Amino acid sequence: MAKNDNKDERIVYGPPRDEIEVLPGVRRYQFISKSQHRMLTKNLNRIAMVIIALSLAFVIFKAIFSGTGYSVYCLEDRSCMRVLSQPEGQNCPEYIYPVEMVVASRTADYDRFIRQGGLRCTQCGNCTKWCILDINIPELAARMQELTLEALAEGKVDAGLVLEEGFVDPQSREPLTEAAALARYSKPGYEKVLKLYREMQGIIREREVNIAVR
Ligand code: SF4
């Protein structure tokens, strides 16, 4: 006779424990891995694991096919943020959080990329040396800039977002006027940002003309 034919598969979990403090005052919430947040039966757990695996595969393949595959290696440990506290010339000239750009590029999240200052990345490479995995952050930023430009041309990106948050003063976070943007991005090292700014302005103007003609 087969054993455990009528065995109740319900899993009994222990009482929840306090969240672990990773750093003083910083608690890490891991909903998937905490036993008290798992499903009631083993089969439900298996289905949940398959869904999670498929979701992860989707994210990985999406990044690979978008040309931002290296972003999936990012551990989000934020070591690249040390670039912000370096002296001038070795820091990020636009005060961008590199990790946020990398995470946005993993899912081709254009809005997040724009809000985090990705369009202003000069691709200087100062942040790369702080990445413990040597992820080529400027290469990811460059690819995301291309993708965002294409998405803007296809109408998938809000022009208002580009104008309001894409090209801002890194200190005040206020949007730059056209004259201020051209002056700032005409400085040495900003050639790629200037080109991107002009191309995006051109697309937005063309769109406004088309709307006015209708
Ligand atoms: S590569 Fe981009 S994000 Fe990194 S330091 Fe240079 S401007 Fe900042």
From TrEMBL:
Keywords, alphabetical: Membrane, Transmembrane, Transmembrane helix
Domain of life (superkingdom): Bacteria
SUPFAM superfamilies from the UniProt entry: alpha-helical ferredoxin
Transmembrane region(s): 47-73
The name this protein goes by in its record: 4Fe-4S ferredoxin-type domain-containing protein
